[in-house]
Design goal:
The complex is a heterodimer.
Chain A lengths: L5 H9 L6 H8 L5 E5 L6 H13 L9 E4 L3 H18 L5 E4 L5 H9 L4 E4 L1 H8 L4 H5 L4 E4 L2 H4 L3 H16 L4 E6 L5 H8 L7 E4 L7 E4 L17 H10 L2 E5 L3 H14 L6 E4 L5 H12 L5 E4 L12 E7 L5 H8 L11 E5 L3 H15 L13 H14 L4 H8 L10 H13 L13 E4 L2 E4 L4 H7 L9 E6 L6 E6 H6 L5 E4 L2 E9 L2 E6 L19 H11 L9 H13 L8 E8 L2 E7 L4 H17 L4 E6 L4 E5 L12 H10 L5 H13 L21 H11 L4 H12 L4 H11 L3 E5 L17 E2 L3 H17 L4
Parallel strand pairs in A: 1-6, 1-7, 2-4, 2-5, 3-4, 5-6, 8-13, 9-11, 9-12, 10-11, 12-13, 16-20, 21-25
Antiparallel strand pairs in A: 14-15, 16-17, 18-19, 19-20, 21-22, 22-24, 23-24, 23-26
Helix pairs in contact in A: 2-3, 6-9, 14-15, 15-21, 16-18, 16-19, 23-28, 25-27
Chain B lengths: L3 E5 L2 E5 L5 E3 L4 E4 L6 H9 L7 H16 L3 E4 L7 H5 L3 H11 L3 E5 L13 E3 L2 E3 L2 E3 L10 E3 L4 E6 L2 E8 L3 E3 L10 E2 L3 H6 L5 E4 L5 E4 L14
Parallel strand pairs in B: 4-5, 5-6, 6-7, 9-10, 10-13, 11-14
Antiparallel strand pairs in B: 1-2, 2-3, 3-4, 8-9, 11-12, 12-13, 12-15, 15-16
Classes of the chains: A alpha/beta, B alpha/beta.
Chain lengths: 799, 228
């Protein structure tokens, strides 16, 4: 057991603080090999994680790495560095603390490998990179503790699988290294514990007092939310009043585009010139750092932000959190609320601002769930093989591999505990020679066997492997900067968006309106356009899916005779929907059809979650295409799928015949865009196609060909290839989610209500503003192309 | 055949949905930028192990065009191979396949920047080829007329979601899309294509059938578009 050294204890006393019980427990349990702390936000979780390290390093620490701290966010690593450096300096501890992320300079990173600090703060991706260097053994030799912060968030994604593989290597390089996980309140702490501990070792779980319930309400505004749309800009006057009433307010948005639009209008309404800033992941690093510094210095009254500030960041005096738009997921809501009032045992204060009437319902459902501590969560399956391939390649970059030893090591990572030797060998085969049925690459194998060990044929390949490490696959982006020599970088936009711009178009970037001038060397050059109206929103951000639990709550809420728990405007809206059409019921499927804007529309309210609704869209449009109904596209949300096309659907019920839907999944779904997107993500993770690192992009004529071509080729010539297997697995659990379609079909059991209407219904209206519309490349598109082409030719006098 | 007919220097030409060009009067089929052996070259040079099936796929599509049209001459407009070593590395089966397609017709290899110099394959090797009033070369030359070329792999965007490989044609020249399976494309609004094509150029989009549109242009600054 480690005691709190006197000088640390004195520092606590000097500030009138006393350690929380769970912080002392962590100290007492310091020698436990695997330890998980579950504590609410604001419970001093991070300090609890670091106290044993500070205690162990308090007197004359030996040089070398003692504790590795891993967080899901770069900003969090930088934040922890600040928060930890202050007490370390004040107590005068001889401890060196450094962070290392993608933002760390090259010279700094080199030095860190040769001469590591006592405490290194980093991200899963930077750790994977460190482990891919030949000198990883030396860097991590003396490592004593690993702290994984916000492990509940990492455990939900491939980043967590990658991290657990990295920890399996760390345990091999530094036997006896202790693992500590820090988690927010979750529905199943034991599952997180199993995820963290080396398999099959146990994990000891410490649970902190959950603290008082948060003070969380919906924002009262004089104007009701709009019928449709996102962004919550109607609420700006009331939001400004709240900002004035509080020290610092965080205003969360679900997408970057919404954050930009809101920020701009908030600024226009900000007559007093209150210091308000914007922070999101698409802004240039310089911009973000400026905002972060101003926030730490207490200079800001409000920050408009997105998920970049979502996790555990403790910046100064935030005393109010405003969530704009439905939170989609109760766990995330509870997390965000925790940003306010970072004092233990004081309730945190939050306001929800629904962006439209549907979100009012969703917000109320989420509020009730949060109050009932009804957290949502779905268990994850075993670790995916694309991440495994990447790990094998990274290990080969670090040095020759012994296949048996690596297999044994990988099986200590919980997500890969059940990995079979055959699956491992297939991944190794892919890493070595591409794993194709046609053995064309014997001459150019990437890995060759020498003396029983696998090593890189060409050592220069290591560079390419390192460049492609990581499991976060964003959309392709291009940089945006001001025109002129040395123009200031502003951030980035999606490549697809950049491609649609013509000079003179204006859009929002970092809160200002900019005007597109040109695309030069894969950088969008813009000029400032003060006072101009932005014509186009800049980018899609992350799209969250509403959890099953929340969807079910909403359906149940619809069945109430009246809605005293909802604001009048929303209750009236639902009543109107009930009058002109009907409200969806838990055990029936509502299908509406109506014309709008020259196209025929069909809406299916399946409430099956965004991914399943999207798959439903693909399956339905395919059947419509076969029936000659000329569908043109669809968009899916968590609760409905909207399809538009050239022809009206008179009898929709047969479209939902379960056997036909299942057959569609088997026979043709594999040719569609969702599968291709899934394939692309895995192809990047395994390093088949290069990640687009800024500056490394091929320019000009040799434009990269699309991964769709690789998918089509493999499907035709090598359908059982490892990457095709991975794609099918990923699609079934992730983007395709046919399981929830089956669930819905069982729930409705053929009970379909068709409402043929003459205009858009109240419930359908928000669907028209959803981003992520998916075009159908069928007969309908050919017809539109022919019409458009004919019109263009005529206008140009060429017809 | 779902193609689009147009006239260049008095010759009636047909742009085919496959991306090949058909000169009916001479029974001549023209394809450009096959880039055979692209995965082989990538493996050799960068260690990227792409699915090694693109040569198979490109030859199969070429075979289908040949079967449908029975051309008397076949002209490959350069960059037929991703590099000369890739040409040498062709498998026995693919060499036989090529030989079978070459049998009984004139076969012309115009060289490109990826495959300069002689090939060890049959057929005639040329820096460029003249026939009637037409000149066939890999890269378009500014002052040429009656010119058929490739090289740029042009693509055009018509609506936000429709981007396709295309032929570019004006009264002086036609530029072919790339025919190879693993080939990217260059947006025809970008520099070199915008400069080399005349103001009345049209883009012929390949797909289920060939669709003509005015060649999309990057609009000049100041003339802002409202239709975005």
């Amino acid at each position: 057991m480690v005691m709190l050294p006197d000088k640390i204890a004195a520092w606590f006393t000097g500030r009138g603080w006393s350690a929380h019980p769970h912080q002392l427990t962590m100290l007492q349990q310091a020698d436990t090999p695997a330890l998980l702390l579950v504590a609410p936000t604001g419970g001093g979780k991070t300090l609890a994680g670091f106290l044993p390290t500070l205690a162990e390093l308090a007197d004359n620490p030996a040089p070398g790495l003692h504790t590795l701290y891993i967080s899901p966010l770069k900003a969090l690593a930088a934040d922890i560095k600040r928060n930890l450096t202050t007490p370390v300096q004040q107590i005068d501890l001889p401890i060196r603390i450094e962070d290392r992320t993608g933002d760390t300079s090259y010279t700094q990173r080199r030095r860190q490998r040769a001469d590591p600090p006592h405490i290194l703060l980093t991200t899963p991706e930077s750790l994977a990179l460190l482990l891919s260097y030949e000198d990883a053994g030396r860097t991590f030799a003396g490592l004593s503790r690993v702290i994984v912060d916000e492990i509940h968030a990492l455990a939900e994604s491939k980043r967590g699988d990658q991290l657990m593989l990295a920890l399996s290597r760390l345990s091999a390089l530094a036997p006896g290294v202790r693992r500590v996980g820090l988690s927010a309140t979750v529905e199943d702490p034991a599952a997180i514990g199993r995820f963290l501990a080396p398999h099959p070792e146990p994990c000891h779980i410490v649970s902190a007092d959950p603290g008082p319930d948060p003070d969380i309400r919906m924002l009262d505004t004089p104007d009701p939310p709009p019928w449709a749309g996102g962004g919550g800009r109607y609420a700006i006057p009331t939001v400004l009043t709240e900002i004035r009433r509080h020290r610092t307010t965080l205003i969360f948005h679900n997408t970057r585009a919404q954050a930009e639009l809101f920020f701009r209008d908030l600024w226009l309404a900000n007559d007093e010139g209150l210091p308000i800033a914007i922070h999101h992941g698409s802004l240039a690093r310089e911009q973000r750092q400026k905002v972060e510094a101003a926030m730490v210095a207490g200079e800001l009254r409000a920050i408009v932000c997105t998920g970049t500030l979502d996790l555990g960041i403790d910046w100064g005096d935030v005393d109010l959190v405003i969530q704009v738009g439905a939170p989609k997921n109760v766990k995330r809501l509870v997390q965000r609320i925790g940003r306010a009032n970072h004092r233990y045992n004081a309730p945190s204060k939050a306001l929800l601002v629904p962006a439209n009437r549907f979100e009012v319902v969703e917000c109320i459902a989420a509020l009730e769930a949060a109050k009932a501590h009804d957290l949502d969560g779905d268990p994850r399956g075993p670790g995916p093989r694309d991440v495994l391939v990447q790990h094998i390649l990274a290990m080969a970059a670090a040095g020759p591999i012994d296949a048996d030893a690596l297999f044994a090591e990988i099986r200590t990572a919980a997500p890969y505990a059940a990995l079979t030797r055959a699956d491992f060998d297939a991944c190794l085969d892919f890493a070595a020679n591409g794993g194709y049925a046609l053995k064309a690459y014997d001459r150019y194998q990437r890995l060759v066997q020498k003396g029983g060990l696998w090593q890189l044929r060409d050592p220069r390949t290591a560079q390419r492997i390192r460049m492609n490490l990581g499991t976060i696959i964003g959309t392709e982006t291009v940089k945006v900067r001001l025109r002129g020599r040395g123009g200031q970088p502003l951030g980035e936009v999606e490549e697809g968006f950049a491609a649609t711009l013509t000079p003179g178009d204006t859009f929002l970037m970092g809160g200002e309106v900019v005007r597109y001038e040109s695309l030069r060397e894969m950088t969008v050059e813009v000029s400032r356009n003060r006072g101009g109206e932005p014509k186009i929103a800049a980018f899609n951000g992350t799209k969250f899916a509403t959890s099953t639990q929340l969807s079910q709550r909403i359906l149940r809420m619809f069945q109430q005779k009246s809605w005293p728990n909802l604001p009048d405007h929303t209750a009236e809206w639902l009543m109107l929907q009930r009058e002109v059409s009907k409200l969806p019921e838990p055990d029936r499927l509502l299908v509406e059809t109506f014309p709008h804007d020259g196209r025929e529309h069909l809406v299916a309210y399946g409430f099956a979650g965004r991914n399943a609704q999207q798959t439903l869209g693909l399956l339905l449009t395919h059947r419509m295409e076969v029936q000659g109904l000329n569908p043109l596209g669809f968009v899916a949300t968590d609760y409905a799928t909207l399809i538009w096309g050239l022809d009206r659907v008179d009898t929709p019920a047969p479209l939902f015949a379960p056997d036909d839907l299942r057959e569609g999944l088997e026979t043709w779904l594999h040719g569609n865009a969702v599968m291709k997107r899934t394939f692309r993500n895995s192809a990047i993770i395994v390093g088949l196609i290069d990640r687009n690192t800024p500056g490394k992009r091929k320019t000009g004529r040799q434009a990269t060909f699309s991964s769709d071509i690789l998918y089509d080729t493999l499907r035709k010539y090598d359908p059982d290839h490892l990457l095709m297997q991975i794609t099918r697995e990923e699609a079934l659990k992730g983007l395709v989610d046919f399981g929830r379609i089956e669930e819905m079909l069982a729930r409705i059991n053929g009970r379909i209500d068709h409402k043929a209407l003459t205009r858009v219904t109240p419930l359908a209206a928000p669907l028209f503003l959803e981003p992520g519309r998916i075009p159908i490349k069928g007969a309908g598109q050919e017809r539109i192309l022919a019409d458009t082409a004919a019109r263009l030719m005529e206008e140009a006098g060429l017809a | 055949m779902n193609g689009h007919e147009f006239t260049l220097a008095g010759a009636r030409l047909t742009a085919l949905p496959s991306g090949a060009l058909w000169w009916g009067a001479r029974r001549m089929l023209v394809v450009s930028d096959l880039h055979l052996g692209k995965s082989d070259r990538a493996a050799r040079r960068t260690g990227a192990l792409l699915p090694p099936y693109e040569t198979e796929d490109t030859l199969a599509r070429l075979d289908a065009d040949i079967a449908a049209l029975a051309p008397a001459s076949l002209l490959c407009l350069g960059d037929s191979f991703d590099d000369l070593a890739a040409a040498d590395a062709l498998s026995e089966a693919h060499l036989l396949w090529l030989a079978r397609m070459m049998a009984g017709r004139r076969w012309l290899w115009v060289e490109g920047n990826h495959d300069p110099g002689p090939l060890t394959l049959g057929g005639t090797h040329l820096a460029e080829h003249r026939e009637g009033d037409l000149t066939f070369r890999h890269i378009a030359e500014t002052d040429a007329t009656g010119e058929v070329s490739g090289h740029y792999h042009p693509k055009a965007r018509v609506a936000a979601s429709i981007v396709r490989p295309c032929f570019l044609a004006d009264e002086r020249r036609v530029i072919l899309p790339s025919y190879g399976t693993y080939t990217g494309g260059l947006d025809c609004r970008s520099g070199p294509l915008a400069e080399v094509m005349g103001p009345d150029a049209i883009a012929l989009l390949v797909g289920p059938k060939v669709t003509p549109v005015p060649m999309p242009r990057a609009q000049s600054v100041g003339k802002s578009s409202t239709a975005s």
